[in-house]
């Protein structure tokens, strides 16, 4: 007897796109049990917290919310599940192994077994704590119930082999493991031709490493070429790229294939070669800027974004100034910047010369102010340029979405349909927003 039929569930997600997509898989698993989703975790019969521990703030928020919800268990028959990166880490800040507040605790490698764990808990009413060091079966057997009806996430590789000194990912997600190219191809084919998705975002901690662990001779550039043979009106994005593995072959494919979005997220983390070496990033400032020059030369309309860590141990004012100068040189469309956060069991956490929190905050605010000025300057350069955009309706107005996520408002456009690609000419800036017209030529 399935005691979960017609029960309700809610999924609370923290962290990156990888976690977002894994929460979509969790929804698919719970749906197979006959459950239906509600937005209010306070009312749901089953609540799944899919956690992140990349930064301390995300971990603190997750733990506090879990403990707050657990207080309601005395009044309600509620099952609380915690999964994802937070329980996977060893000697982490919060130990959930003995906590009576949580019923099921699993890590990053056995999310697909969630249905079995729920049934077992219902039968025994005993806490389940099961953290694995590696996946026990294919991580992609679960059908996902996706958040977005336009953009679909597709995993192509799990884990990471880089071991950056600040990063906990290799410890909580394991070593790199590529999916079979046929499985990826078939998933994208179904999403495009049967489900009508317009954007496919390929996911991995380092998508550029794809294929290195496979017997079949294939790399990321070849995978992109293969996916572009799928017929349909769609575009391919990917994240995250590692500068060390971002090759000329990938740039060539991006330039050649119209189905690949002209957008690149290439995390630099610091503009100082000294700090990059301490981070164990495997490239220096010169090599990174060489990759940027290559991609800009090949694809002049490329939209660029990056990640930056401010206040890494040993970062002097001179090192920080080099990061600011790199921003001025590259002129990113978007920057995701964060203060360095100590993570247990990582080499950086034990380094000397830790930066004061107040100083880290000061540097972060300075960087963000500079980036805002750069973005405003960049907007002016977009005028009279053409972009291939996804046309959609937003608050009753037509909007063109560029590959890099820029919104171009198209006033006085009469909708016949939406969610299709068209060329848009940017003709001005109104109320700090780009405006344009659809190029009918």
Beta strands, count: 19
**CATH homologous superfamily of the largest domain, by name?**
Methylthiotransferase, N-terminal domain
| Cα separation of the termini | 62 Å
The whole-angstrom Rg is: 23 Å
Task: Classify the beta-strand content into a percent band.
Answer: 15-25%
Counting structural domains, the number is 4
- The helix content is 25-40%
Highest-level CATH class of the largest domain: Alpha Beta
**Secondary structural class:** alpha/beta
Residue windows where pLDDT falls under 50 for at least 5 positions: none
- How many helical elements? 12
Explain this structure.
- The chain has four domains: 8-130, Methylthiotransferase, N-terminal domain (Rossmann fold); 148-260, Transcription Regulator spoIIAA, CATH 3.30.750.210; 262-381, Transcription Regulator spoIIAA, CATH 3.30.750; 386-438.
- Helix 11 packs parallel to helix 12 (357-382).
- The protein is built from twelve helices and 19 strands.
- The mean pLDDT is 92.
- It has helices at 17-32, 56-70, 85-88, 114-124, 169-173, 181-193, 220-227, 248-256, 273-278, 285-298, 317-330, 357-382; strands at 8-13, 36-37, 46-51, 79-84, 104-106, 128-130, 151-155, 157-158, 177-178, 199-203, 235-239, 263-265, 303-310, 334-339, 386-394, 397-401, 407-410, 420-430, 433-438.
- By secondary structure, the chain is of the alpha/beta class.
């Amino acid at each position: 007897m399935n005691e979960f039929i017609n029960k309700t569930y809610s999924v609370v997600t923290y962290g990156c796109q990888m976690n977002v997509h894994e929460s979509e898989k969790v929804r698919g698993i719970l749906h197979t049990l006959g459950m239906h989703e509600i937005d209010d975790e306070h009312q749901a019969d089953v609540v799944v917290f899919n956690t992140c521990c990349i930064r301390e703030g995300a971990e603190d928020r997750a733990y506090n919310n879990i403990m707050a919800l657990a207080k309601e268990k005395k009044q309600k028959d509620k099952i609380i599940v915690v999964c994802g990166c937070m329980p996977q880490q060893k000697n982490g800040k919060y130990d959930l192994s003995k906590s009576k507040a949580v019923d099921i605790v699993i890590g990053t490698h056995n999310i697909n077994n969630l249905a079995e764990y729920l049934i077992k808990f219902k039968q025994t009413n005993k806490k389940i704590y099961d953290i694995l060091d590696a996946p026990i079966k294919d991580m992609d057997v679960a059908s996902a119930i996706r958040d977005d009806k336009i953009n679909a996430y597709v995993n192509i590789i799990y884990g990471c082999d880089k071991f950056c000194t600040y990063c906990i990912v290799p410890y909580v997600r394991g070593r790199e493991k590529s999916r079979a190219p046929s499985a990826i191809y078939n998933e994208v084919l179904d999403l495009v031709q049967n489900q009508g998705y317009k954007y496919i975002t390929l996911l991995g901690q380092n998508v550029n490493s794809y294929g290195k662990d496979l017997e079949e001779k294939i790399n990321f550039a070849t995978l992109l070429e293969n996916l572009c043979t799928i017929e349909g009106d769609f575009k391919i994005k990917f994240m995250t790229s590692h500068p060390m593995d971002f090759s000329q072959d990938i740039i060539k494919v991006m330039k050649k294939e119209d189905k690949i979005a002209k957008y690149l997220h290439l995390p630099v983390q610091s503009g100082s070669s000294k700090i990059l070496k301490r981070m164990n990033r495997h490239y220096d400032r010169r090599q990174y800027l060489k990759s940027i020059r290559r991609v800009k030369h090949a694809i002049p309309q490329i939209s660029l974004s990056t990640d930056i860590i401010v206040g890494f141990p040993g970062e002097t004012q001179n090192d920080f100034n080099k990061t600011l100068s790199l921003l001025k040189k590259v002129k990113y469309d978007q920057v995701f910047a964060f203060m360095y956060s100590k993570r247990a069991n990582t080499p950086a956490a034990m380094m000397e010369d830790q930066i004061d929190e107040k100083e880290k905050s000061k540097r972060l605010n300075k960087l963000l102010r500079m980036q805002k000025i750069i973005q405003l300057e960049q907007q002016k350069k977009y005028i009279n340029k053409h972009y291939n955009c996804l046309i959609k309706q937003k608050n009753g107005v037509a909007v063109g979405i560029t590959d890099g996520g820029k919104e171009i408002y198209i006033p006085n456009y009469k909708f016949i349909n939406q969610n299709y690609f068209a060329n848009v000419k940017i003709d001005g800036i109104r109320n700090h927003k780009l405006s344009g017209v659809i190029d009918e030529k």
